[in-house]
Amino acid sequence: MPFDSIAGQFPNNMRSKKMTTRSLAFHLAAASSALVGLTFPAHAADQSPLTATTASQKPAWLTDLSLGVKETDDDNVFMSGANSQNLPKAYKVPAGSTAALKDRSSLVTTVSPRLGINFAPLLGDQKTLEVLSLGYSSDLFTYHDIPWQKYDCHRFLGAVKGQADNLSFTLDNMFVYVDGSDYGPTYPGGGNFYNAWATVTDGLRVKQLQDTGKLAVRYDWDKFFVRPTVFLNYFDPMSKLLNLPASEGYQNYPGRYDLNGGADVGYKISPATALTLGYRYGHQYQQQMSFSPDSSPNDYQRVLFGAEGKPTDWLTMSLQGGPDFRSYAPNTATHITPVTNLHPLTYYGEASVTAQASPADSFSFKYKAYQWLSICGKLPFFDNRYELNYHRTLTDTLGLDLGARAWNADFTSGNLSTSLRNDVLFTPSAGLTWSPTPHLGATLAYTGNLGRNLEHSTAPLYRDFDQNLFSLGVQYKF
């Protein structure tokens, strides 16, 4: 796998090389536009969904079968704000890593196959299981101007949903394997030269396993319900852990997970809306690197107050929030928890709201705030996210999407002066989707990532960055 060993070895003819790849992108876009003009057979109305054999109609158990191709122009792949002249005059880049410098740009090709199967329709005349599904989706990324950043993200999804009298249950799980680099990126100059969200994004491209799952079982009475739940969020990075000076800027990605269980009790203020009171007991694990005494595993308890349901025909909501009581592992001869308070009181909150303002206009809002563990190890941080999206149906075939997200990583509860930071990522987005047939769609989109430093760092401007992504994609649904 080719790689840059030091900043001075970047090719001088990169700009001419990029013009070549963009020319390729132009011709691909033209071909995609021509493809969109094709027509496809209509659905066969006289065939059973389980026995249809024509290419125009898939059986009821086949929930998704599609293929997408997208071309993206990324003008700052590593989300870096440090120019070469601001970096140390001499630094090492480990073999297999890459110097993550400002404005490293590339054309990115993404190929995205999707397959979804729901086995419930194949189980005969039964009403207990609504969903018994398995799915596979992947995004295969090729960075034409930085080829060693190529990676493939494979997702395996499972879902179960059903009901028997007053008892209902749901299970959702997503297992992810990322086939990427064995090494993390290198941000020369250490912590003052990269934004927290830059290294998080780069961390999603290295080799790793992830698993996220949630199980909920609910029993209903006339006015009340009880709902036990279990939740898991697991990360196993498989990139190399290297004992290098902080000034070299190599990114180590140790393992971590969050596991909790508990229950909610709900009181129905209307048939479709309820107030809830919940409790969770959980544990967060963070791998301790062999060459560092610092990590922050902890236990926690949460008391959650909430509301959920459909208060009106056009509004759907789910809200929960409340105090979060933490207990971090005490220091030992071989381990240090780098926080100022081993038993802090923090806050947990999450919200999901969808509003159908009119037949053509819909809004969605998501929010989550909680204490989590750094992807780079050692410190915990307060993870605070806001997301607002708007969709407008312009015509029968044309749709507009606008979005905005703010994502804050606040590490100031720690006590490591070399690692304290408070960074935010602002993400505006816009997209136009054209779907001339039920099978074919094309999307033209823009996403911006604006990383900003909120603390008074010794070099705050080096941690500020701008990234612009322009993309054109085509998807065919079988």
How does this model look, in words?
Strand 10 (298-312) and strand 11 form a beta hairpin. The chain has helices spanning 14-36, 196-203, and strands spanning 62-74, 106-118, 129-143, 151-164, 167-179, 208-220, 224-237, 256-270, 273-286, 298-312, 315-328, 345-358, 361-373, 380-393, 398-410, 422-434, 440-453, 465-477. It has an 18-stranded antiparallel β-barrel. The longest helix is centred in the first third of the chain and has 23 residues, at 14-36. With 478 residues, it is mainly β. It has one domain (7-41, 53-477): Beta Barrel (Porin).
Unreliable parts = 1-55
DSSP E strands, number = 18
Tell me the distance between the termini.
Answer: 36 Å
Estimated radius of gyration: 24 Å
Output the CATH topology: Porin
* Share of residues in helices: under 10%
* CATH C-level: Mainly Beta
The helix/strand order is HEEEEEHEEEEEEEEEEEEE
% residues in beta strands: over 45%
Number of helices: 2
Q: Tell me about the largest β-sheet.
A: 18 strands, antiparallel, barrel
Structural class: mainly beta
What's the rounded overall pLDDT mean? 87
Instruction: Give the overall shape.
Output: globular
How many structural domains in the coordinates?
1
CATH architecture: Beta Barrel
